[in-house]
Amino acid sequence: MVEWTDEERAAISDIFSKLDYDEVGQKCLSRCLIVYPWTQRYFGAFGNLYNAEAIMNNPLIAKHGTTVLRGLERALNNMDDIKNTYAELSVLHSEKLHVDPDNFKLLSDCLTIVIAAKMGTTFTPEYQASFQKFLSVVVSALGKQYH
Amino acid sequence: MQTCAVRPSRHSTFTHSTSATGYNMLTKHEKELIAKIWDKMIPVASDIGAECLLRMMTTFPGTKTYFAHLDIRPGSPHLRSHGKKIVLAIAECSKDISSMMVTLAPLQTLHAYKLRIDPCNFKLLCHCILVTLAAHMGDEFDPVAHAAMDKYLSAFAAVLAEKYR
After folding, report:
1. CB–CB of A126/A133 below 8 Å?
2. Do the domain assignments include residue B10?
3. Can you tell me the ipTM of this complex?
4. CB contact under 8 A, A106 and B10
5. Which of B74, B83, B120, B152 could form a disulfide with B50, with the two C-beta atoms 3.0–4.6 Å apart?
6. Residue B132: its chain A contacts at CB < 8 A?
7. Range of the domain at B73
């Protein structure tokens, strides 16, 4: 059971309140595919990923980015039981999508950086720590059903 | 399935020295981009360096164990001077990335024999450097700049760790 301080809950809620899921989702997923190109292996059916510009303009990637952010919102709304909230998603990523769980961390690093670029120095070290704690719980929950 | 070229694993501390020099990893354009970004950081090296360190120690508290001899409170002169050293070393190296192995030789020895920082921590600092750059550069720290910088910092960290064993 993860313990959250009031400050951590407040920081994480505040960050989410500032996010446009369409914008941040698209930026985060496309950045991951550009910075860590091997992650493209999971997106064979998504059309043109030939170069950075193609990835950044790809509507299927943008749409999937929104899906990812909506998934994170579920964790936000169930912060005291992320593990169970994500049980099905974990099975999906393991059994159906066959995603190497190391990739979850890559995507979460990209999301942190997209948010830093958006919030500037209001994304303080304390905000970063809280948000990364949240993401590490999410990443752990997503990896739980792998065996 | 896309075949992967040899790339430094995010988990391994030691990489093949050819990839570590950046010869194969960075294009000419990427090297210029990296040098340009770090050149802008030189006048604010203390601020940027202190922020990188503070982000790292706040997000990854285990890293504080290496700083027990310093005052690491926000704004402390120790944090600023130590941060400045790190930023200046990274900036200096970025001016001639192809010579990284030569430029970093003294720092390799320092880290291997004196500081003995577990190299897994290098990637934690590298991540916080990327976050700091993003926070200060905003949209200018676009995916292409991010990718180039991540590769450069990974190579830098790998070279630093080369004399460990």
Report:
1. no
2. no
3. 0.88
4. yes
5. B83
6. 116
7. 34-164
